[in-house]
Write a structure and sequence with these properties.
By secondary structure, this protein is mainly β. Helices cover about 10% and strands about 40% of the residues.
Amino acid sequence: MASAPSTPSRNAEYDHPARRKPSRTGPSTSPPHLSWRMPAALPLLTASATLVKTPKRGVVQNEPEERRGPNPPPRSRVPRRGNKMYTAVLRRAWPVVAAASLLPLYPTPADAQEAQGRRIEEVIVTAERREASIQDTSISITAFTAEFLDDFGIRNQEDLQNYVPATTIQPYDATVRGVGRNFRALGGDPGVSTYMNGIYSEDLLTATAATFFDVERIEVLRGPQGTLYGRNAVGGAINILYKEPTYTREGMVKAIVGNFGAEEYYMAFSGPLVEDKLAGRVTYAHRERDGVVDNIGLGDDIDGLGTDNLALQLKWNITDNLEMNIRQNWMDIDRSFGGANDAGLVILNESAQPTRVTGLSGVPGDGLVPGWRFVDTGNTDPTNQFDNDFYIAGADERLFTDPVTGAQRLAQRIRPGIDYGDFDGFQNAAVSLDGWDVTNPETAARYNACVFPGDIDGDDVCAATNGLNNEEFEQMGTQFNLSWDVSDRLTLKYLFGFNTLSYERITDDDNTGSLIHDRQFYVNHEADYRSHELQAFFDVGENWTFTSGIFFYNAEIDQRGDYFSSVGEAKYREAYVDNTGLAGAIFPGPMVHLFSAKRTCTQSDDPAASCERNYAVEFTNEELEAAGLGRNDNLIISQWLGDDGTDRNLDVRNGPRTEATDLLYTTETKRDAFAAYTQSVWDINEKFSLTLGLRYAEDKVVAEENLFRYSELLGEPGDVLDALLGPGSLVTYNIANGGLVDSNGDGYYEPTPLAVNGGIPVALSVYRPFERTDKEWDWRINLDHDITDNVMLYYSATKGHRSGGYNLVFFSATPTYEPEELVSYELGYKTDWMDGTLQVNGSFYYYDYESIHTVVQEVTSLGGTSNSVLEAPGAEVMGAEAEFTWLATDSLTLGGNFSYTPSEYTKSLLAADLAGEERPNSLFPDQVDLVQDIKGNQLIQVPEWKGTFWGSYRFNMPGGSTLDALASWAYTDKVYYSPFESDAESASSYDRTDLRATWTSADSRIVVSAFVNNVFNDIGKLQVLREGESEFFRRSAGTTVPRHYGLELSYTMGTY
């Protein structure tokens, strides 16, 4: 939205001549009547500083005003014939290429003469906490103005990431050049920091969920920002800067309608409350859209939108040199949930097959429980039916290769109630879609049509749920800024941030709509964040500046999760009746609950050593084993008496009352952080500038985790039963308790819903407390070299870190991990060519990456595996990236970017691949045989190639209006989601083509746009998740949005 000239921004405090180098681009000299606006192309300012001096929308043409915007992405590198990117370019980029081929790519003399009225104008950013031209900022940075976001229709992270090299942005996290957070476990931190008006936010979702309406600028900084943006900016930083109140009245309204029932409404009004002293701004945005993924189960389609956001701002010029700005926002989200980290709903395959395991063999119980057993095809005598190698004709079977001998052996699936299974009683809902142990062929065919082993077309994408998938998010945030110009050489600034949020969602955990077996996951997340920062900007002389500050941060996070059955599955709702009397004899008394173990610690006069904080950290499994102790971690066990929904101790606090809960957890984290930093810039002479920065950071974390769960496993499968009743007692136990019945009296037993495969059903309560403090130094050294007025090179070395933490919820054998560290070496360039009409920026970099936080399955010294976050000892990331903008003619603008990011784990880390269906743990229980070394593999979530190309052309219409046509094409290479570099846990490359046409009235007040996003309806796979054997090696993913088209209408009131 445009604003008429107003009182100068307080940010002008940084704009003293002594603080800024002369702009290489120089001021625009074109007369106002030749300075027109290219909506779709020119506002893009990526790592280049690309913009044109043009009237804004809503400002009549006799009121020209300079515009600052983001710079556009750089030139896309043309790949060699035969590689995947080249093929994708030819297949999908033809609309862009065809449109451009109809236009003159090189200016004629007349064009060149007219083009003298257009220059790429400098963009002012605050990447180094001071205002400076992006071309004078020695950081790889992509910046986007409000106009660019509006003209390109960028309203979410999926749109934004296409225009940033080497960057992927998910709903909850971002990854830049291979550095980010590759897991969502609590107790850790993001690897790319997010800022709102310069104030740190721990949640990317908070900053981006409400769309980018009324945003003045978005800055994406790539590479470690170790000094000025120190907190967890090891990968980079995203700073979202909102429009400020103005001292002239202005307003704007916008509406968007589209397919999938999309409706979006926006409004913003700004103006003075006290003339020249106090100004206010109010902004409101509403977005809604039906689900874009067809739900073949119960309920509405999934992955919809439902967002409301209200923001109020005040700007107060207290005195001539003291200004206050405050922004308060309230956001509410209520939508059908479409998947996120570890919560994919679209099935890619199951058990390495392009179908669901639906048990259509006709053999009772076939496929109902996970796991395999080796069989002997000669052992078919019914009297041997309880033998583990008993062969059943017609049952699902498969050949497996022994990893030690290399021999192939035949296996069939574990039978309910007969064969021991290394799982906790969970049964396959896909085998019971139509009834207990029944899925008919018609239902199976419908579900199998929603399995996508290859490419996905947007018209086909579907999933199955029980209709409960929903996400609700309430957030309130404050950003406060008080700035004081103490003198011409010293400015002080105080920043305060407060953010409180409540997040909850329900996700279908079994990916079916079964009314027999069902498992839902409910999570409740509440957090409060507070930060205080005092900054000082000091000019020692004409060529020497300091930026210094101190930072205080506090975060309190509570998260609770509940796995329950929405159909009240009797196995978990009711008490297990043990006719043998073993359960009651071994575990007498009432059933434990979520906090039983914690209360034993806190209420005991003589608590066990394991109740002490960091007991699980300070004493390793090996030490405890050598001392003759077990790692009990405050474990309490009772018999299973069921959850009928009446015991609030088995429900999540502030959550819904559920029944048939099989797992419940709660975690608490309290973090206090302090940092002090300084950065100095010395202009050695007209050619060279030296930057030195240093930051000290200290983080203290206090955390705890509590767990309640149903289990049939105490030790290895069969340990307890075989010790009490003798070998092979599982069958005896199930017959005694009704888990196996001879319904026909023929001596052949079939399973019932009471069948168990692990042992005696019990309830567990576990508690562990933690505390840690990390102290780290970060630094930055940078040398700028102005080779000419239009070419700058910079050479930098920067060290950044991410704090250590805990892998909460999973009760890992290794529950803690140390800080992550990265040293970056970068050679960058900022250039302007062709009399200011071509801008090309880029960089080459090398990362020395250590202690990379990586979630894996580790093999413990006491046997078994544990989900842990371990430090991968070392990795290398190197790359090249470039961005360009070219004002090719007076009507045509071209832009693009590309990045090449090869990466590799360079040091050994051993981890077990339990999700590898070729070696299931049930057949090969020695987890050591499943261990792989990730050394030499590609890093997680790093597309090796990524690029975007776009073009915009303006047609001058009768009466002074204009029509702008925009085409863009973006490509993202294959991405791995596990350190094993496994195709089974990868998302294949995909591309997206967008088309847009925008008509602007002669006075720029009315703008009408028509758009088609994802023209070819290709679906990209996001956050691919591969489950282990207990979930039948199911692989699922979140997906990008199918083809989306619609109309936009906006009206700018201008000054009134």
